[in-house]
Amino acid sequence: MTAPITTVAGAATDVGARRRLNEDAFLASAPVFMVADGMGGHDAGEIASAAAVHIFSELVGRASVTVDDARDVFLRARETVDEISRDRENGAGTTFAGALITEVDGAGYWLAINLGDSRVYRMAAAGLEQVSVDHSVVQELVDSGRITPEQARRDNRRNVITRAMGAGSDADADYWMLPASVGDRLLLCTDGLSNELRPERIGEILRAVPDPEAAARTLVGEALERGGRDNITAVVVDALMVRGGARDEEDSDTKPREAVAR
Known about the structure:
The protein is built from eight helices and eleven strands. By secondary structure, it is α+β, with helices and mostly antiparallel strands. A hairpin with a 2-residue loop joins strand 6 and strand 7. Helix 1 packs antiparallel against helix 2. The longest helix has 20 residues, at about 65-85.
């Protein structure tokens, strides 16, 4: 069976300028694309994020996944991270953001998942949009109107999250079903990227760099240049062909690249 979305992806990660250990992990292999940002200090965060990614890697190689598949794997990943957390004095946990290839009535869809403050962005014809919503104290303050998005970028509570996998949290993830189109470009990133680069700059880079691997490296490199205060990870995914998408699935490979580079 052919995949409802044919993709090409690239990824990059860096420990950053201030950390000694990279607690981020990622997966960039169809039909699963994800990033995870570990928490817990010492080796606990690194182990938690790697464990979550390892459980999701069981889906690699399938043409697509269902929502039930995703929920089942998410629950098993959370159980695994919970066990890791219980074995460590200070606990352990990880944020999580992913995009999985799925379908509805034969048409290609993205299944976006988020828990914590790692993010899912989509670049389409209308521009860059943040699909996921941060599970954080400052996001709650923005939603309630107590601070502005600009104030949130400078707030010293911006790294305090309200949901996680492990770390004593049993909260569920948020899920979104997004109809896919040829030319879609997704970005999955940890907060080490989004805290350093404004969305406008992220969009400029995603438009200017056609190759997803090079785009991921450029994003991570610029975040490092702008401070690199945390681990930095980016996964960039391009939709080359989409069954039942907004453009004819027989469009040539160059059309999606033109769409994101113009």
